[in-house]
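Record type: monomer structure entry
Structure origin: computed from sequence
Chain ID: A
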Amino acid sequence: MLVETFVGWRDSGPPGPVLYGQRAGWESSALQTAALLQRGPIVAAAQAQIADGQYYASLLGALGNGSTDATLTLVGVPTEYAIVSALPPADTPLPMEGPDDFVWADEQNGVVALKVGERRLYASLYWRARFGVNNLARIHDLRPDGQRLATVYLRTEFADNGLRYTFPNWLDKAFVRWQTNLPGVTDRLAMAGQQIPVALVPAGQEQPEVGVETPFVGRGLFYRLAWDDLLIGMNLTGLDNVPPQDYNLDAPPGARRLPDGQPLAGPVTVAPGTTVVLQLPR
């Protein structure tokens, strides 16, 4: 079980670190919450981490830290381990290990995860849209015969506030103003000088200053993403003081709605704050 860094917004290297339920570090262990709650999916995750032989390795960060916080974390480890080990086996499978297909989405953050048979897919629908609407999505598609990682175009419906962001020639880090200037380097960022629109920020939220990263300047109202045999429609209205509005996703003949496989044809309504995933005929 690894953190899905392939579709992340920062420069974390893939594959990500081991993570089952609670993230371990020098301020917390992977079993703290499971030992406290003693029920629910967090217990299943903790028991799976122990069974897979991945628990002890999660303590290395605290062991090498040397701080008081790390010491306090390690003091609780024997008790937490004893509590979780004594609990009856959890009957809640981890989502990607269970028998059922599913579609999960977080519209506020623009992310989708789905399982169809042995296929798993993760997507970020306004990927790294820190300063404006970039019409980019990031996809990690895993199947038994291989995996694909792609940055793709998607269609974005958004309210334009009239401002434009111009990409600077940042070669070091894409998300901070301070850059490492290497002597003799004359390379240029391919997107340097290009402009993208800035989205209208909802009422009651901090109004944007061009070039300052804020949560809403790159967020749209509706996304339409076509990838392989999938068509994803995500409606972000009705959230964060954005007035609700229905959108339609055109389903071609033979399309099926996931995860239940219901046949559909024609316009499919995507209600505010919801996501629809269609599987198209090949």
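Annotation 1: The longest strand covers residues 247-258.
Annotation 2: The mean pLDDT is 92.
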